[in-house]
Amino acid sequence: MHTNPGPAADKPPEGITNVTVILARVVWTLLGPAAIGLAALRIVTRRDGWLTPLDAFYAVVVMLMIACRAIEQRSGTATTVTGAPSTPDHFKRYVATLVIVAGAIWAGANLIGNHLLS
């Protein structure tokens, strides 16, 4: 049995006009991933241990990405990276995937930097 979610679900969201929402989108799609990638690289090369200020920075950026995604989601104009309208399920999957992938990258960077290269 297929239920129709209604006409609102079929319409693409209108464009983002709020500057805060635009900045939030830029953070969770571009700046955040770049920052955690660079931080992971630094974690590998610095080899300072597991719980350093750089590790804290990494965690803060991940939390900021989630917060920015939530800001966009609550705006009513949220879209996926591909431009499709974003649903609460998209947001939940984003958070779950980000936490798992970012955690694995962080752990891998620390394992490589603090154990394999030291």
Weakly predicted, low-confidence segments:
none
Q: How would a crystallographer describe the biggest sheet? A: none
Tell me which oligomeric state these chains represent: single chain
Helical coverage, percent range: over 70%
Strand coverage percent: under 5%
Structural class: mainly alpha
Number of helices: 4
CA radius of gyration is 18 Å
Q: How many beta-strand elements?
A: 0
What average pLDDT do the residues reach? 88
Distance between the termini: 58 Å
Q: How would the global form be characterised?
A: elongated
Listing every helix as H and every strand as E from the N terminus to the C terminus, the arrangement reads HHHH
What does this entry look like structurally?
- The protein contains 4 helices and no strands.
- The protein has helices at 7-10, 19-46, 53-75, 88-116.
- The termini are far apart.
- Helices cover 71% and strands 0% of the residues.
- The chain has a domain at 17-97.
- With 118 residues, it is mainly alpha-helical.
- The relative contact order is 0.16.
- The longest helix is centred in the last third of the chain and has 29 residues, at 88-116.
- The model has no long low-confidence stretch (mean pLDDT 88).
